[in-house]
Structures are given as structure tokens and as C-alpha cells.
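Q: Please design a sequence for this.
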């Protein structure tokens, strides 16, 4: 009997000890649980920003895949990867580019647009480097693209954005150049990661540029896209109007893709810098959303 009592007491003590250890472990686990990130602009991650409008997203995690499938069938030439803002990044060179054979109708039929991406590059000479291009088989200049010119002081970047517009038949050529030069040149852009975003709003016919989440103050002649001075009866251009779209290229010009385009001119240079988190939306993102996108991606979210 005595041995039974001792055994019962031992079992009860063991059960109590196990229960206490278990409770203490749960308490420790709760105390050390990951602390949720505070939302930025109302979002927990960058992918929560206007997800239904996001058509293209290339993160370059050792591959050239567009996770949204707006562009697909990609073939890379001399593509390598380096450390980016989020994971890996596309590393350009004097011969590197990506050609995507398939372009979705959503990308072909863009009426408004936001293009965003992180770039890190250095000054260059000899021409203009192309960051990306939506080609056009019947036009030398293509539909939509961003160029980085190799001119100006080493601390400044001259950027040209090109868009095709829906205009009246009286305008023989609808391509529109939006050039950041002169007093609108981009300052302190080289040698460090910069988040560059530009957008076009078809409803208001306005163009905007953002650097590191901050909207640049632009003259009305640059931000409002009209056939002539709005004060003199200028007609807003309205919707984008890409046409004869074939393929999509990152890091080069349509002329680097071969037929039906002619050989590239000598000044047509490949992009030699880094590119990360390249996105295209079919809307002009609100200022607050651009700011949130910058902060969230910077925070690796």
C-alpha cells in the first residue's frame, strides 16, 4: 500500500510538472511571437497596392518571369543577377536584354499607365540607354519606353519617356516625348538605388514623375498633355493608343530584336545598370500609393 501511495504521488507530481512546463512554453512562445509590421499607407505589402490593376511584375529572382503574365515567353541574352532592393535584381550590360515574345491584350490596350522600378546605374557616354520598350512594328520609335541619356553633369540624369496618344487625324504623328532635361533634369540619381515611377492619367491627360516616393513639381507644359496650350483651346490627348504591338523588351530597343526592325543606330545602347521590382499598372496610381509602394519595397515587403 505504501508503495502505491508513493507511486501515485510521483505520478501526480510528474503530471503537474509537465503541465507547468507546457504552460510556461506557451507563454514564452506568445511573448516571442513575431511582431506584425505596421501598415504603410494602409497596406501590409507592396502587392496589396491596386492588385487588380497590376499587369506586369518582374522581380528578377534569378529568372526573367513576369509573375502577372502580362508579358511572357521571355528569352534573356547575357542576363545576370546581382543583389537588389528585394532579393535579386537584373544586371544589365552593353549586350544584355530580355525579349518577351507574348504581350497580353491588357498591356497592348493600355489607356492609362504607371511604370515603376528600382534602378541603380552610373553615368555613361555615347548615346541613350533603353530601360524598357513596348515595340511597334510600323514605327521607328515604338509605342512606350523610357530612355536614360548619357549627357549632362555626372550628378544628373536626363530621362526621356515616350508614349503613343489617341489624337485627331490632323496630328500626323501621335508619339509624345516627355523629356526631363534643363531645369527638370533628375538630380543625384547615380551610384545608388533610386525608385523611379512615372504615370499618365488618361482622364485628366496629365503626366507625373516620382523619385523615391516624392512627386516632382513639373511645369504645366510638361505635366498636361495637350495638342497645344490649354489656355488657347488645346485639346487633351486622352487615352494612350499603342498599336502594331509585337514583343516587349527590357534593357534594349526594339531594334535589338531583329526583323521586322532595322539594325540599331550607334546611339541605341543597352541598359547597363541594375533594375529591380519592375511593374506596370493600367492606371495612374494615386500619390499616396506611389509613396507606399516605395516604402514597402524598401522595407522588403
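A: Design:
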Amino acid at each position: 500500500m505504501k508503495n502505491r501511495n508513493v507511486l501515485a504521488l510521483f505520478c501526480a507530481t510528474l503530471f503537474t510538472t509537465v503541465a507547468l512546463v507546457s504552460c510556461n512554453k506557451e507563454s514564452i512562445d506568445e511573448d516571442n511571437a513575431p511582431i506584425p509590421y505596421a501598415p504603410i499607407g494602409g497596406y501590409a505589402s507592396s502587392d496589396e497596392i491596386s492588385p487588380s490593376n497590376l499587369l506586369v511584375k518582374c522581380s528578377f529572382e534569378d529568372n526573367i518571369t513576369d509573375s502577372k503574365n502580362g508579358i511572357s515567353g521571355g528569352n534573356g541574352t547575357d542576363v545576370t543577377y546581382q543583389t537588389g532592393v528585394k532579393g535579386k535584381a537584373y544586371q544589365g550590360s552593353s549586350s544584355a536584354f530580355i525579349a518577351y515574345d507574348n504581350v497580353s491584350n491588357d498591356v497592348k490596350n493600355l489607356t492609362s499607365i504607371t511604370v515603376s522600378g528600382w534602378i541603380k546605374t552610373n553615368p555613361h557616354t555615347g548615346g541613350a540607354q533603353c530601360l524598357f520598350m513596348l515595340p511597334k512594328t510600323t514605327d521607328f520609335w515604338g509605342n512606350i519606353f523610357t530612355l536614360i541619356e548619357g549627357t549632362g553633369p555626372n550628378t544628373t540624369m536626363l530621362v526621356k519617356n515616350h508614349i503613343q496618344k489617341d489624337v485627331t487625324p490632323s496630328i500626323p504623328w501621335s508619339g509624345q516625348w516627355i523629356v526631363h532635361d534643363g531645369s527638370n533634369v533628375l538630380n543625384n540619381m547615380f551610384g545608388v538605388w533610386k525608385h523611379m515611377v512615372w504615370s499618365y492619367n488618361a482622364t485628366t491627360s496629365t503626366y507625373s514623375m516620382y523619385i523615391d516616393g516624392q512627386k516632382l513639381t513639373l511645369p504645366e507644359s510638361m505635366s498636361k498633355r495637350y495638342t497645344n496650350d490649354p489656355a488657347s483651346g488645346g485639346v487633351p490627348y486622352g487615352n494612350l493608343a499603342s498599336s502594331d504591338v509585337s514583343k516587349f523588351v527590357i534593357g534594349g530597343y526594339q531594334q535589338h530584336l531583329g526583323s521586322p526592325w532595322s539594325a540599331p543606330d550607334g546611339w541605341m545602347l543597352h541598359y547597363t545598370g541594375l533594375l529591380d521590382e519592375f511593374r506596370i499598372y493600367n492606371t495612374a496610381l494615386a500619390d499616396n500609393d506611389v509613396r507606399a509602394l516605395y516604402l514597402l519595397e524598401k522595407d522588403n515587403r
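Q: Thanks. Anything notable?
A: Residues 2-31 form the longest helix (30 residues). The chain has one domain: 53-298.
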